[in-house]
Amino acid sequence: MAKEELKIGEISKPRFEFRSFGRCFCDAAKRMARLSTPVPEKVWERHSSETYIVSRTNDVNNTKIRDGKMDIKTYVQTVDGLEQWNPLMKGEFPISAQVLRDEVFPAFKVDGMPELTKDTYTLEEFLGMIDAHPDLQAVSVEKIRYGYMVNDTICETGDVYINGALVRTINSESTEVEDIKKTLADVGLEGVENINYLQAIKRVIGMINKPLAN
Predict the structure, then answer these.
(1) Could you tell me the domains of the chain?
(2) 138 CB contacts (<8 Å, ≥6 apart)?
(3) Is 166:159 a contact under the CB 8 Å cutoff?
(4) Is the peptide bond before 114 cis (omega within 30 degrees of 0)?
(5) pLDDT, tens digit (0-9, with 9 covering 90-100), for 14-34
(6) pTM, full prediction
(7) How far is CA 158 from CA 26, 34, 155, 161, 214, in A?
């Protein structure tokens, strides 16, 4: 069976991903840019401001909010060190109390559901609940991302500001594990720790006592 052709910015079947965070991936980033095939101009450089909700007791559900919309992805499996995540929930603010009760707070895997006395809640009200919970934290994440395509894998390098702290990221993702592994070898990322956004944010804010990749 022919493998699926991936296109940046378009939905495909669930992908596997390598990503890492650190102070510098300069050599790998240069090789990624040189090896890349042409990509659409819309992904040359992208800027976004997002809010991630991190939980001390959860590492399998990744929750982020952008432009008033909430997106939760859930961890599925790791194959040859590459992680696969699937969509779990999508919502938009104002959001219903039922969705918060049945889908959002269960994804955080924390004790102590906030008392929900209204039918719907604004983003500001939701963030107030997060701030009041001892095991949850809302984290500001600003991204500047540069898109590439290497070995038919969707790649990017980026500057990421986590609560204002600058870290660098680099990644390769595809539905095909072997294509990612070839890309990691070609750009010089073999042996570099695979760190997803949830783990990187927790390390930067001190929720996990562990450094980034470099």
Answers:
(1) 16-205 (2.40.320)
(2) 51, 52, 53, 127, 130, 131
(3) yes
(4) no
(5) 899 999 999 999 999 999 999
(6) 0.93
(7) 11, 16, 10, 10, 15
